[in-house]
Design a protein that fits this description.
Length: 116
């Protein structure tokens, strides 16, 4: 079972990931853009983050999501919960953390555009 403090932090970290994802879907937009097989990529959900001028707020939001999902992963990894639930949730959270970290790295490295 989780202590009261762990539950509070789990909700805080979960909110750090879910609220931006529900409002703007930056992670799903980027994953969807990579999965489309064309030169004319259609954005899943258009918002102000799809504008190239707003790259720094996008980096901030993805960093916030990364910290949130990393916190959820750590709390679930350390928690003494049902082993079946832990076996199901921990790998999903780790994969989601890796995807979010990779997207954060890609967005940060291309913040000045692609140039050689």
């Amino acid at each position: 079972m989780l202590s009261k403090m762990q539950k509070v932090w789990l909700w805080i970290f979960g909110g750090m990931f879910l609220v931006p994802e529900i409002l703007w879907s930056p992670i799903f937009n980027i994953i969807d853009s990579f999965l489309q097989n064309s030169n004319n990529v259609k954005v899943f959900r258009s918002n102000f983050f799809t504008n190239p001028d707003n790259i720094y707020p996008l980096i901030y939001i993805i960093l916030l999501q990364f910290v949130g999902i990393l916190g959820v992963s750590i709390i679930l990894f350390k928690a003494k919960v049902n082993s079946r639930l832990k076996i199901l949730l921990v790998p999903i959270m780790i994969i989601l953390t890796l995807f979010t970290g990779l997207i954060l790295y890609i967005v940060y490295s291309f913040r000045h555009g692609i140039s050689f």
